[in-house]
Amino acid sequence: MRRESDDAGQICVLHLQYEKLHKYCNRCFRLTHEAPACPERARDQFHHREQRREQYEKREEEEKRGKQRSTREDRGKAVTFRRTTQEQKRRGPESMASSSRPKPVRRELLSELDASGVNSTLEKPSTKKWVSKAFSATFGKPVKTGRAVDQQSPMPDSRRTKPKAPWYRDTEEEAAMANEVAFQQAKWAAAFQSQASEEQKVGPVGISDGSGM
């Protein structure tokens, strides 16, 4: 029994009658059977079983493939190891020892490097020789050094065929010599100018002293 009011405000009484159902499926919402005996449940279970079987089979196949790959790699490594051991046995123990030991530095290379360093140090002339060669070439007179006198005439260079600028130098030695010569010439010119100025200052004083006597 249930009471309700309508839109006009009148109270209506409803008599409801409930009947208990013995068989009712919560899965497919049917009255013919209950949930444990539902045919759709069996289908779903079968479908889930098939999926599980497929997954299990796939896992087994992947595991088999991984094992086959690992066995192949192990076989390849074993074959390469056997080949290397056989080659080492053929070559002998000396080759194995030489390959395992660190290789020493070649003495020939060290001797060549030492010889080249000595030659380079010996071949470089000193600044005195550069200056003496430059002045002997320009003035044609020997220049006295501290211990000996070097007199060398300029040798014509047959390689120079094309005319070049006066400031151009073929090597670093020639450039250094030219710089030394220019420096010495400027120094001597300054010294000559200072001597000439001193002589001019001293000259008239001496003449005046002679006339006074």
TrEMBL record:
Residues 46-77, 84-93 have a biased composition (Basic and acidic residues). It holds the Pfam family zf-CCHC_4. It comes from the Eukaryota. Residues 46-105, 138-168, 192-213 are annotated as: Disordered. Residues 8-39 form the Zinc knuckle CX2CX4HX4C domain. This is Zinc knuckle CX2CX4HX4C domain-containing protein. It comes from Arabis alpina.
